[in-house]
Amino acid sequence: MVAVLKYLIILYGGLFAITNPIGAVPVFLGITHDLSVRERREIATKTAITVIVTLVVFALIGQWIFRFFGSSVDAFAIAGGILLFRMAMDMLSGKLSSVKISTEETEEFDEEVVTLEEVAIIPLAIPLISGPGAITTVMLYMAKAGGVMERAVVLLGIILIGITVWLVLCSANVIKARLGRVGIKVMTRMMGLILTSMAVQMIINGIKGAFGL
Where does the record place a coiled coil (predicted)? Predict the structure, then answer.
């Protein structure tokens, strides 16, 4: 039981660093600045559900994706590590990772008239929160899961991340007021540091597995 709880904590911590919901707060407030509290909560709910569904789907079909493209888990780990490392470098600079969403894409949603569903799904859920890094990570965790229990833990971790995303977005105004822009940038840098170590370890594990070291 202790080992399962430890695995869940490690998984949750890694996904939290990758999805970085706190870093998404300024974008969320910028996109929803003229909406009511009820509408913001509705967007937060739909965003969280989309994040959960997206990550669960890719976690479950990851094995078939590997087989279809003839890619090994180790090769995917190396590629995923490089992707996460690039994201981490952006986060260490206190910037929104261009791997997830560009400034131009955010500005487009400020200028266009879009529905609540569109805002919740794109750009908030995909690719801002459940972007390529998060998708790659859950696919790798599921691929390396040793049994039913570990697979269940991966799915539970995804659900917990979705709940966290909902709580953070619903409390976006409070978080921004308490942390401010500087505080959010500091948090983003801290998540970037954690993500850097994860990326390097992912690359090392991929190289070890690929060359049988």
Answer: none
